[in-house]
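Might you be able to check the backbone structure tokens below? Thank you kindly.
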Amino acid sequence: MTPMKAARLEKREYKREHKREQKNEKRERKQRGRAARRPLDRRTTMIVILSAIALVLYSVTVPVHVALYASSVPIMMLLAAVAVTAALVGVRYPNLAIIMFTVAAVLIPLTISRDAALHAPWPWSVPMLIAFAVTVAALTFQHGWRHGLIMLALGTAAGLVASVMLPTVPSANSLIVTTSVVGGIYLIAVLLAGRLRLGDELTRQREHTAEEQARRELIEERTRIARELHDVIAHSMSVIQVQASTARYRLPDLPADAASEFDDLAATARSSLTEMRRLLGVLRTEDQSAELAPQQGIDDIPALVDSIRRAGVDVGLELVTADVSAAPAGVQIAAFRIVQEALSNAVRHAPGSRISVSVRTDDSAIRLRVHNTAATGETSPSAAQSNGHGLRGMRERVALVDGTLEAGPDADGDWTVAAALPWVSKQESM
């Protein structure tokens, strides 16, 4: 395969990986949106339930009041519709619902025949008592204990007003029973509504905490990558600054104009280094110090594998490398970190497995492959709850050097991480 075809193939693989990441992000956004849709789903369920209750109550209230209380059919049909639909209206407009039911609770007892009221519960019939309880419970569930308490107080007051306006009709038993039953339902509704709201708040808090944790880990990973890039660029800028500053001494026949230009170049390099160190100070948190150890590269991978072996893990290494000194420092750091993260994931998620590491380099790319068999030991709970930020960090490192990454399981339960990090050798760049 020619280098050009290989580059095109790697570019296609990178695009496919980018599409996969976009799909994963869309899936995460959908999961985050479930919490926002939950109140809407609950409201829709409430509307459906209250609509069914209103239909049943209306079909019962009108015949009962016409047959037992000798109420006028047209008037009763209108007032009953107002009373039984108040709870449904209260889903969106709680104040209007309170007014609707209070007016109906006052007028319905006044439309009956006095003789009929002597032989049936008054001022609250059984259908109206149920409608009263449903309205109080619905307002409490949807809008809190205050609206429910207001509805309970005004509904009770409406019954008292009707009994005062018709004092000759016995009303004490009906008032006591209605107030007791609806008051008890109100207390139950308050407790259930509080439990539901507490559960929703805990769910939102957990989701918020998980999002913050994921965002914090992602920022930490990007900050670490930024520091490593700083080390690479700072080294190159330092070399430029030193060479430019010493040019007039190393080249005695250097013209004055060229020497002045080299001095300007050295000043620019020093200024850039100062700004870069200032930026690094912003990226580093207060409890972190500068990392003075040199950054690892491909030559440090065997030592990394040996450290894993000393921990009792079966790791095989295949290292087929050309002269890696020509590889850019950023690519070497990315290669080391990807192998390091892949080994850590294998040890953490597949205890007891056998791991094989393959590192191959040529004049165009560094190709990495870390493969582990299925786990034979018990996975720790912390590993089972991992959110995959290590894979995300590897993808970001690969993207920084325009490489490709494939990671995933196979049919046997094994896991493979394969990466290609392109670079151009000094011979090709000349």
